[in-house]
Amino acid sequence: MRGARPATTFLVFLALWWLAARYSSVPPFMLPPPGDVAVALWTQRGLLLANTLVTLAEILLGLLCGTLLGGIAALGIVFSPVLQRWLMPVLVVSQAIPVFALAPLMVLWFGFGMVAKIIMAMLVIFFPVTANFADGLRRTPPGWLDLARTMNASPYAMLRHIRLPAALPAFASGLRVATAIAPIGAIIGEWAGASSGLGYIMLNANARIQTALMFAALFILAALTVALYVLVDRLLRRLLYWAPDTTGG
Amino acid sequence: METPPGILVRDLSLHFGGVTVFEGLSFEIAAQKFTALLGPSGVGKTTLLRIIAGLEAPATGGVAATDRAPLAGRIAYMAQQDFLLPWASALRNVMLGATLRGARPEPERALHLLERVGLGAQAHALPQTLSGGMRQRVALARTLYEDRPIVLMDEPFSALDSITRLKIQNLAAELLAGRTVLLITHDPLEACRLGHALFVLSGAPARLSEPLHVPGPPPRAADDIALLQTQGALMRTLTEAAAP
């Protein structure tokens, strides 16, 4: 009965929500009952779908570019001591700046279009991808490297056939975290200034007290994030069939 | 394969964290023989093997082949752990050297070697599906695939149960015959079954004992009288080496 537990949790959550909306004194414009949200989901489906696709595109492109950039940065850090000395402090400082505070700047620089949101998603995921992958590349079991040396392997062959595959489970951990948090970057970017996307719908609906529509957008965003995470997780498990920590659960 | 040379260790010195591991250590490892190296833990056996393998550099002195050609590229190394790559099948693990050197892999030869170690049916299995003994046999096949004249082995069978160990010793003796083999072991029986010459390394800085020679070709039966006598002598040498 896979999925029975999440389904039960979801139903209990819906029931509590319905009870709170029905029997508490909270007005519907602050907490609409689930039924109203379902109605909004259905009647505004065209609008919601179009804007979901925008946000999804931002998330996916942000994930792709952020992962590529993070991967390259990790390789640079691990294999070039000079790059490590220059890049590591920048990375750490970059984590000290709240990404939220950068969003208006990104919109100012890159406009109301998708680019600012993609960059926001990239900024959010860059660090976990880089840090995890670099860590994985540094932790190659020394026995494998010694063995490769006695086999006259070139540094490039060692990287390609031993260090890279050995670092993939760590890279996968970073990618999982990135998948879960990339939507945050995209939505913050939309809040700072956008003409489409789920974040834009939420802000607009909120301003017009269309709370049910706002909840509908929020619901889609949550479902999207969970679906994306599950998809990436399944894909990584399949690719890393040999890694012990991905065979269970 | 070329005629395997012997190994000359000359005037080796190594200091490690303020401790003198070796000081002017010199000896010769006979060509085309099994040489077993025993001694207490931490005395520097593995370090010595790593220096010969070119994985560590001594402070002074060096290692050379008796035929004066360079040692690099003529040594295969087998460690205590199997170090099989978990993402590659047994077959691909055996051919790892070819993959790493960018040479054309020879699956037929690799499969033949796996068959020799009794794992022909497991050629496409991933390492984590194999038992410890099977994994070590894959590592042995990988060592043989390298087809190097000199083979260095660092307690390769110590993690195996005694019956599996006896079987894989027979296999190693058969498949490595004619090569120059240096085997580190903690097991006196293993040393006596496989070794032509046995050395004990002990003390700080470490010194080698006079070699013990075991009569008869390896692998010797575990109840062979000459073997048991040598094992007794070896135990005495080891006990003396362990005394303060």
From TrEMBL, chain A:
Q: Which UniProt keywords are present, listed alphabetically?
A: Cell membrane, Membrane, Transmembrane, Transmembrane helix, Transport
> Matching Gene3D superfamilies, A to Z?
MetI-like
Going by the entry's taxonomy, the superkingdom of the source organism is recorded as Bacteria
Segment forming the signal sequence: none
Subcellular location(s) per record: Cell membrane
PROSITE patterns this protein is in? ABC_TM1
User: What topology does it adopt in the membrane?
Assistant: Multi-pass membrane protein
- Indicate the transmembrane segments per the record: 48-79, 86-109, 115-134, 166-189, 209-232
All copies of the ABC transmembrane type-1 domain together span 48-232
Please give the family membership noted in the entry.
Belongs to the binding-protein-dependent transport system permease family.
Protein name per UniProt: ABC transporter permease
What is the protein's species of origin?
Answer: Acidocella aquatica
TrEMBL record, chain B:
Under Gene Ontology molecular function, one entry of this record is:
ATP binding
Q: Which residues form the ABC transporter domain?
A: 7-228
**Keyword line:** ATP-binding, Nucleotide-binding, Transport
Q: Which domain of life is it from?
A: Bacteria
What Pfam families does the entry give?
Answer: ABC_tran
| PROSITE patterns per record | ABC_TRANSPORTER_1, ABC_TRANSPORTER_2
Q: Where are the transmembrane segments?
A: none
The record's family statement is:
Belongs to the ABC transporter superfamily.
- Protein name, please? Nitrate/sulfonate/bicarbonate ABC transporter ATP-binding protein
